[in-house]
Amino acid sequence: xxxxxxxxxxxxxxxxxxxxxxxxxxxxxxxxxxxxxxxxxxxxxxxxxxxxxxxxxxxxxxxxxxxxxxxxxxxxxxxxxxxxxxxxxxxxxxxxxxxxxxxxxxxxxxxxxxxxxxxxxxxxxxxxxxxxxxxxxxxxxxxxxxxxxxxxxxxxxxxxxxxxxxxxxxxxxxxxxxxxxx
Length: 182
Known about the structure:
Elements: H1 9-23, H2 30-37, H3 42-47, H4 51-71, H5 82-94, H6 96-104, H7 112-117, H8 123-128, H9 136-158, H10 166-181
């Protein structure tokens, strides 16, 4: 008699990630996940103590995907923060459900700054280094304004309130950032 395939931790998190991308964070429940990967809920709770533990791992996997997206985004503009803003907006456009989980779910374990900056990649610091003679007293204020602007653009893009080409988004970011920097 053939042995049944064992459900692994990787299969579970991959299934949860697929569901997140397709249907959003709210769709990832134990029953729906079990159905999606073709098992009962028992293997899920053998691997994970509870759904909160699985969802924390799903969040971290999503965070890693965002960082890889930014690293491979190919956006390298001379104007400080434009690369960061373009990657953020493009991620929102291409991965709406992941964007919602990371930046709109109200996760209290990580600040938005930590998520945008990346674990080890220091995306924000790379942008600050592009500034000519940055006034470190003003950098936090500039980043706050940039973040509000790029976050608004990303949110308006995924809700359909604003249709932007990459060229339009880039131009708007450059104009706003130059105004913020002064």
